[in-house]
Amino acid sequence: MDRVVEIVTNVNNALNGFIWGPYMLVFFLLVGLMFTIRTGFFQVTHIKYWLDVTFLSIFRKGNNVLRTDDRHSISQFQSLCTALAATIGVGNISGVAVALALGGPGAIFWMWLSAFLGMMTNYAENTLGIKYRYKNEKNQWVGGAMIYIEKGLGQKWLAVIFSVFCMFASFGIGNMSQGNEIANGLRNSFGIPSWITALVIMVLVALVIMGGIKRIASVTEKIVPFMAITYIIGALVVICSNITAIPGAFAAIFGNAFNLPSMGGGVAGFTIMVAMKRGISRGVFSNEAGLGSSVMVHSASDVKEPVVQGMWGIFEVFADTIIVCTMTALTILCSGVYDFTLYESAAVEGVSLADAGLLSGVALTSAAFESVFGALGNKFISIAVMLFAFSTILGWSYYGERAVEYLFGLKAVPVYKIIFILIIFIGCNASLQLVVDISDTFNGFMALPNLIAITLLSKQVVEMTKEYIARVKEGKETIGGEEVQ
């Protein structure tokens, strides 16, 4: 049995090394760059417009962006919150810290770059998602990468592969690993037994996901803004308490991003390549642009115009990575708990962070908050991890549901939900690192068929964008009753 586990582990490590390796990361960037160039740097040239259509429209009455009158659909804001529920997760707290610890401050610059280009990748996904979505037997909108792969490319086999990857990823990276984070955090900070945490999460998740996308959306539109705003405020308190360190933090980010590779000792250390790999992979893993996951929930929106939902995709990446991940990075860099020299020395000497007595992950972020809030900082991060992970479970339950429906039909969805709920208990109480690692690989492999599809369908995205911009200039597309130029 041990031999089998060893073989599975080695095979998974090889596959994971490829899908999250340099070649695939370059592929992610090139696809985003392609859409950025072909749409005329839409995320920059039309920043006022997509902010008006998305974030600012939340505070404005009388927004007349065309909507469907379908009672089974969810609002555009709810689709955003449900997508953010899956993307704003533990990785925004621990993943950024890991990127800093292993890739240096320069990793943050490359994270920003991947997000900047990823905005247009996510835009393309959501635009295609709305264009190719359809109604199922329950009159619900069904959309996602598997739909435009089948209907747009005519390659059902590729759509099936994507759906299989998505289904398995939902059980691991979208469920068990999140439950494990919640259980560990509550046990370490508040002494709550893991089995109690598991039962509570199971009940809460069941109450939500059994109500379908409408109930999931109604919950996430309350949880996500609250948890994101609360976390950002806490981070800003830490950053402002060390306001004089802000210039140095940005200097470290930009300076380390373009350091020449070290030539000494044959050890790459904290070179530009290490920073690039850690930063780009963190950006992609965090906002999921290119994975084709969030398009499933965006496709359930009440929007009529595909380009409008695409702009919500731009804001999704912006909020997740440019805002939340940046808050975590600046908190760590400004608080003084991170010493680049010590981390670099450990890397050059080949000493693990643990053996060198250096913090990483949640512990590093927690230390940054404790530097200002004291013992409350640790509890604050534990609660943030709990909320972020719980919301991720909700978001990924819907992704898995859509994949199961595509593969096996509507009748299989209730069975999937029951299995999804039961697996939470296993995730909270067992150490299943290999299972989580395998699901992480499945998560990454969702990108291959999706990136191929949106690249081959890119002409359609560009044409829809140009047509929409032309209508805006003619005054045929308005926001809040006012013409937008």
Task: Give a verbal description of the structure.
With 485 residues, this protein is an all-alpha fold. It has a single domain (2-477), classed as Amino acid/polyamine transporter I. The chain is 74% helix and 2% strand. It is built from 22 helices and four strands. It has helices at 2-19, 22-38, 42-45, 47-53, 76-87, 94-103, 106-132, 145-153, 156-190, 194-209, 212-241, 246-257, 272-287, 295-298, 306-335, 340-349, 361-373, 375-408, 413-429, 433-445, 447-456, 458-473; strands at residues 134-135, 141-142, 478-479, 482-483. Strands 1-2 form a two-stranded antiparallel ribbon.
Task: Give the end-to-end Cα distance, rounded to a whole number of Å.
Answer: 65 Å
The fold-level CATH name is: Amino acid/polyamine transporter I
Helix percent band:
over 70%
> Helical element count?
22
Shape-level CATH architecture: Up-down Bundle
